[in-house]
Amino acid sequence: MNGNNDTDLFREMMADVAPMSNDIVEPEAKAHKPSEAQLARQLAAQSLNEGDPEYLSLEFARMLKPDDIIAFKRPGVQDGVYRKLRLGKYDIQARLDLHKFSLKDARTEILKFLKQCQKMDIRTVIIVHGKGERSTPPAKLKSFVSQWLEQITDVMCFHSAQRHQGGTGALYVLLKKSQDKKLENRERHLHRTG
């Protein structure tokens, strides 16, 4: 086939097609309302840099049992790093004990503790929340702590501790590197390759 035959064939196929009189799409008048899932993701995108603890709910948490093992890992965390944390192979650099704290005070203490750890370039911590066997409902604080840590984007992963460090009544937590540490690592790698 030559180009002339193709053009003739195209014209013949398009002979009965009429051009559109209006090619402008009218916008819908409805305002966009975010779905519940979008709102939840928006809430989960909070970081330790924001001082208001109100985004961490005191109203609702997925309830756990006192002996439940808690495990959470964000996408991008290497399996080897998570495995070492889970097995308690990292040195614990700081500890927070939440026994005897009310729910609201525990929330405030967790945020204050994690912010301070990040400022001091502390990345591996343990948070002791207790099993909550005698609380009503059982494991109330444990359930809320787990949910709060998932919502803080500066928390990379966490897992229930080994038995000798509190077992299912405590969590190993790995925090993101501070901006200073990230910059320091970048510079060290640049000097090595340059």
From TrEMBL:
InterPro entries: Endonuc_SmrA (IPR047688), Smr_dom (IPR002625), Smr_dom_sf (IPR036063). It comes from the Bacteria. Transmembrane segments: none annotated. PROSITE patterns: SMR (PS50828). One of its GO terms (molecular function) is DNA endonuclease activity. Residues 96-176 form the Smr domain. The keyword S-adenosyl-L-methionine does not apply. Signal peptide: none annotated. Keywords: Endonuclease, Hydrolase, Nuclease. NCBIfam families: endonuc_SmrA. This is DNA endonuclease SmrA.
